[in-house]
Design a protein that fits this description.
Elements: E1 3-10, H1 16-32, E2 37-52, E3 55-66, H2 69-81, E4 85-93, H3 96-109, H4 111-117
Antiparallel strand pairs: 1-3, 1-4, 2-3
């Protein structure tokens, strides 16, 4: 199934409850425009490549949703104006399930797992 992959970086000072509330808000936004969130997974707290708003770390979250352009537009509008969102990037993917499985494999066996175990 074709869809979108979004990586969202949240403020490192956001509590777990804040992050959960934000992710629920993003999911409701996508679903409110006829979209469907297929997969959502936290990537954890990671060091940023360069400081953003004087912050060196951020909480990464990965979200996959179906190909609904109205949902993408609504989500990006919400992300743009939320002060807890440091950065985000959304890309089109041909097969959402295949991309998610690749990510999960990296998370358990690859370079991401190694970085997560270093903390």
């Amino acid at each position: 199934m074709q869809g979108y992959e979004s990586i969202i970086i949240l403020d490192p000072n956001a509590t777990e409850e804040d992050q959960t509330g934000l992710l629920d808000k993003f999911k409701v936004t996508v679903e409110g425009e006829g979209g469907n969130v297929l997969h959502q997974t936290p990537w954890g707290r990671r060091k940023l490549a360069y400081p953003v708003n004087k912050k060196d770390y951020g909480y990464y979250h990965l979200m996959y949703f179906d190909r609904t352009p109205q949902a993408l537009t609504a989500l990006e509008r919400v992300l743009r104006y939320d002060e807890n969102v440091l950065k985000w990037m959304t890309v089109f993917v041909e097969d959402v399930d295949e991309e998610f499985n690749k990510f999960e494999k990296l998370k358990t066996e690859g370079s991401i797992a190694q970085n997560l175990s270093d903390r």
